Structures are given as C-alpha cells and as structure tokens.
Amino acid sequence: xxxxxxxxxxxxxxxxxxxxxxxxxxxxxxxxxxxxxxxxxxxxxxxxxxxxxxxxxxxxxxxxxxxxxxxxxxxxxxxxxxxxxxxxxxxxxxxxxxxxxxxxxxxxxxxxxxxxxxxxxxxxxxxxxxxxxxxxxxxxxxxxxxxxxxxxxxxxxxxxxxxxxxxxxxxxxxxxxxxxxxxxxxxxxxxxxxxxxxxxxxxxxxxxxxxxxxxxxxxxxxxxxxxxxxxxxxxxxxxxxxxxxxxxxxxxxxxxxxxxxxxxxxxxxxxxxxxxxxxxxxxxxxxxxxxxxxxxxxxxxxxxxxxxxxxxxxxxxxxxxxxxxxxxxxxxxxxxxxxxxxxxxxxxxxxxxxxxxxxxxxxxxxxxxxxxxxxxxxxxxxxxxxxxxxxxxxxxxxxxxxxxxxxxxxxxxxxxxxxxxxxxxxxxxxxxxxxxxxxxxxxxxxxxxxxx
Length: 452
What we know:
By secondary structure, the protein is an alpha+beta fold. It has 4 domains: 21-110, Carboxypeptidase-like, regulatory domain (Immunoglobulin-like, Sandwich), CATH 2.60.40.1120; 121-186; 189-321; 333-447, Glutaredoxin, CATH 3.40.30. It is built from 15 helices and 15 strands. The strands form 4 sheets. The protein has a 5-stranded mixed beta sheet, covered by helices on one side. A 4-stranded mixed beta sheet has the order 4-1-7-8. Strands 3-2-5-6 form a 4-stranded antiparallel beta sheet. The longest helix is centred in the first third of the chain and has 32 residues, at 113-144. The termini are far apart.
C-alpha cells in the first residue's frame, strides 16, 4: 500500500475530527493569587467561564477542548473583585497575554494581532485615565482656592483629552475595519446632535433616539459578549423611551427587528425584553409582554423554544391580553351569597371596582378601607366583590361589606382575571373598561383624586 496515500487519508480524517479548543496563557508579573477567574459579559450580566490556578511566576492557563464564544472577557481576582479585560476572538484562541499585577491595564500585551490591538486600546485608556484623574484633582484644588482661570484651563485640557480619544477610536474604526475592536467602537459610538436641533429639547431627544442605533453592528454577534450592548439596550428602553406601553412596544419592535440580521442577537434581545416586561412590577407593562409574544413567538419567529414551552408563553400572553388596561373587562356572572346570579355589567356607576378577596387578614384590612372609600364616593363608586374561597362557610367568614355586590367565584373567573393572590383589585370606568389594576384602596383613591 502506498504509505503517502495512507498518510493523506489519516491527515484528512484528523482534519475533520479535530476539536475546536482554547488555550489562553495569562502571565501577571508580581501576582501571587492562588487562582484567577475568567468571566464573560452576556448582555447586561456577567458569568463565570473558567478558573485557572497559579503555575508559578504569576502564570495562569485557561484551556479546554471547546472554543470560547468570542467577546470581551474579564480576568477576575475574587478576593477583591478587581479585574482587567482581555479579548477573545473567533480564531484558534491560542493567546499569550502578559501584564503586571499593579496597573494591569496600562501594561497589558498579547502575541495575537487582534488581541494586541485591544491591548493597545486598553493601555491608551489607562494612560488617558491617569491624566484625567490628575487634571480633575488640580481642577478641584483650583475651585477650592477660587482660581476660575485655572479651572477653565483644566476644562479645556479635559476637552482636548476627550477629543484625542475620539480621534484614536475613529482611526481604528476607519483603518481596522472588520476587526473585533472596530465593531466594539461602532457599538460604543455616541451620537452628536446637530447644532440646529440641540437647542430644541424635544427635537434633540427625538433626533438622538431615532439615530441611536445608526452605527451599531447588529450583524456582529460578538458585541453581545461585551459590556456595551446590555448598557445601550437598557438606556434605549428605560431612558430614551417614554415609559408607557405604546412607546415601549414601538421601541422594542424597532430594536428586535434590527437584531434579525444575527440569530444570536435576535434570540438574546427577544428573550431579554420579553422576560423584562413579563416580570415588570409597573402597572400596564404586561401589554408590552403580550405584544412581543404576539409578534415574535406566536408567528413562528422564535425557533429555539420547545413546543410545550412556546405554547405555554403564547397562551399566557393571550390570557393577559384580555385584561390589559384599556380593554373592556371580561363579563362575570357569578352567584351571590343567596345563590342568585349577579352580572358585573349590571352594576351602574361612574366607576366599578372588581375586588377579589379571601379569608385572610390582608383582605380584612382592604375591605375596611374599601368600604370607607365607597361611603365617601357619593354613589359614584361601587364594588363587585368576588370571594375566591372554595366553600360557603369560608366565604361567609371572610370580611365582606353589605354595600358591595358580594359573589362567589368559580375557576373560570380566577383564570380569566389572572388571580394569583388576594386582595386583587381592578378599577373600571362606567363602560366597564379597565382603567387600572392590582392597586390597593389608597392607590385607587389617589388615582381617582378630584373625580369622586
């Protein structure tokens, strides 16, 4: 048999069976920590990836049979939570980083081109940071000694440093296109509002919000594992967006739709925003959750969930959709304490409270406060009180008031109104449209101030 032919076959087999791996050496001159931790960013959180133990002379090795997801990683000292950052790219991930225990950012170096580029940036930032700290210290002293000219000179120097950093970052964005660092800088890009708009407060806000994502590299999934995307996403939905459901829905749609160019970006952003608004404590924000599920989960765009879990979240959103603020409250026809049916829609009042209660001390206090509010409402407010206890004895033992329409619930009513605890109150207008929900009596009193 031809030995060269056999060797070729073996090499070919080796090529196809080789496993991706990582081998990252970190040498920290002067470090005697018994171990260091490798952590990574994922959106707005950080997670532990690995632990490396001291091999001698400040040397640590992170190695494994699987390659690491590309991103900016943290080398962390767990005893004091101090750290420095390194870059992990989507290459063969065999790097040698060196630095010093004291001032690791300023002295960080690597033997890989893209990693070295990142080290230069980190070192540049550390140097500029020291200079900024020095200028700020002098400026504070000048202010304390009433030396305005010197303070102004410090301000000019700080502006000069900022401008130099912007130039440094812009050069990398333009000259190192395609590198991971260039993507990170595009992600970090801060929009400058044109002078003609900057004096108009609303116009400046609208311009900034509309162009906030202009340079963001949504197609590069690596930026998901940097400290940039999570921060910007939070800023966009919590600071730049008016905190009411319609505005939040619009903003969520815009950013998620931009993420569709990268599967991992789309998956993370869709999941994160859905989770955020499903669990929000802000009244009415469940509308955001329902809208996201309807647009992305119920239409088959979410492909990473098992069918039973997907069906569960779609059903949950459909359930909440029926009781969103602005919806007409679902009809209830429940038996009163004498066994006669009582319809919610038959109650005639400017405002109706649907009050779900049980036989517990919290409901005793709520019922008392609610009864006082009814007495002071001049007939404008009425209560449809639904006892959730399963038997008549418990319902009669619960704290009820004769001025309420008192009824006993069934399983459908509890499910329809998403009752997971008591007391739970819904406030309706005269047309039985939901105005507010899950408020207590004092909050309803504030909500209806000057209307009763």
